[in-house]
Design goal:
The complex is a heterodimer of chains A (279) and B (66). Chain A is α/β, with parallel strands linked by helices and 279 residues long. Chain A has 10 helices and 10 strands. The chains are: A alpha/beta (279), B alpha+beta (66).
Chain lengths: 279, 66
């Protein structure tokens, strides 16, 4: 009993108003140690303690958490304004405990431009999927990047339209089967997958572009560093920063989450090479 | 000794934590949680508190203590 209270106190130091759920209370066996257990990892304060609507093994949950960790670490929660996309992450405002605006499909960089120009002291970032950013929103992202807007873009690339039922996106790999390419994407019929970061790298307005993945613990740590660097680039007023995150969509890839994580390593990351593109 | 705590009722059963634990200390339960999913549980043993499981958990339901 006393151990359980100690655990709660230790946690409260990191997160206020935390509630220890009775069904997940640590057993007496697990808490035999006399020293007070230190919290190594818990839910970041900016991430609301509610269940997400994402499928099992979806990368969105990991990326939401990484953004919240970075915002808490940089202590910019009170001046951050996010712009949520249309797509699977459309109700990201339910999960983030900071200010979020919603934009029309693909118009997220345009809305973020307006917010940043009116309130230049705020940290403004957009969160977009590949259907949002690379298909309907291509014009907005290219021109926001070309103008060198001082915003941060988190681009979640999972290669399909998840929200509408797994149709082909511009970033779908050659040969990948989707709801609209039943025989696999044909390069002759549908063209080549779009490498957005390489396309934006030639624009002088872009200052920091990096591609990361969230398929393993090591890659998640790299992704966190990249997202942090993108926010810092904006805070220093350098200009447009963007992180492309290769994410899993086990449901519409027709795989288990573990197979989907393997696919990122074996197939997706070979076409979309990880690492710094510009910056 | 480090340890982890998993909110089993919110586990969706992706098992990314199971494959990412370097010591294979996270196991899949035989019974179902309230979602009808075979959730994961911490089997005890020599946990180093590396937090690899928590890093890859999309639901953020793993807490790590050391």
């Amino acid at each position: 009993m006393s151990n359980i209270i100690r655990t709660k106190n230790a946690k409260d130091k990191i997160r206020k108003n935390s509630v220890l759920r009775p069904e997940s209370a640590p057993s007496a066996q697990a808490l035999k140690s006399d020293t007070q257990p230190a919290v190594v990892f818990c839910r970041p304060a900016s991430l609301r303690d509610i269940e997400t609507h994402y499928c099992a093994g979806c990368g969105h949950g990991i990326i939401h958490r990484l953004i919240c960790e970075v915002i808490d670490e940089l202590n910019i929660r009170e001046k951050t304004i996010a712009v949520a996309p249309v797509g699977c992450a459309v109700i990201a405002y339910d999960y983030w405990d900071f200010d979020v605006s919603e934009a029309a499909h693909g118009r997220t960089p345009a809305v973020a431009t307006g917010i940043k120009r009116v309130r230049p002291d705020n940290i403004v970032f957009t969160y977009q999927g590949d259907g949002d950013l690379a298909a309907i929103g291509t014009a907005e992202i290219v021109h926001a990047a070309n103008r060198g807007e001082n915003i941060t873009v988190i681009f979640v690339n999972n290669g399909v339209y998840g929200m509408t039922g797994g149709q082909m996106a511009p970033t779908t790999l050659a040969g990948q089967k989707t709801a609209t390419t039943l025989q696999g994407r044909s390069l002759r019929r549908e063209g080549y997958p779009l490498k957005v970061l390489e396309m934006l790298a030639v624009l002088p307005g872009t200052k920091y572009l990096e591609r990361v993945a969230v398929n393993s613990a090591q890659e998640v740590m790299r992704a966190r560093r990249a997202i942090r660097k993108a926010f810092v680039t904006q805070m220093q007023g350098k200009g447009f920063s963007m992180v492309e995150v290769l994410s899993m969509c086990p449901t519409y890839w027709g795989m288990t989450p573990i197979q989907a994580a393997e696919r990122i390593k074996n197939d997706v990351a070979t076409f979309y090479p990880l690492g710094l593109v510009k910056g | 000794m480090a340890k982890i705590r998993i909110d089993k009722q919110r586990c969706k059963g992706c098992y990314l934590c199971v494959v990412n634990c370097p010591n294979n200390l996270i196991k899949i339960a035989k019974d179902l949680n309230s979602k009808g999913v075979k959730s994961v549980y911490f089997s005890g043993g020599k946990c180093t508190g590396c937090a690899m499981c928590a890093l890859v958990c999309p639901e953020c339901i793993i807490e790590v203590y050391r």
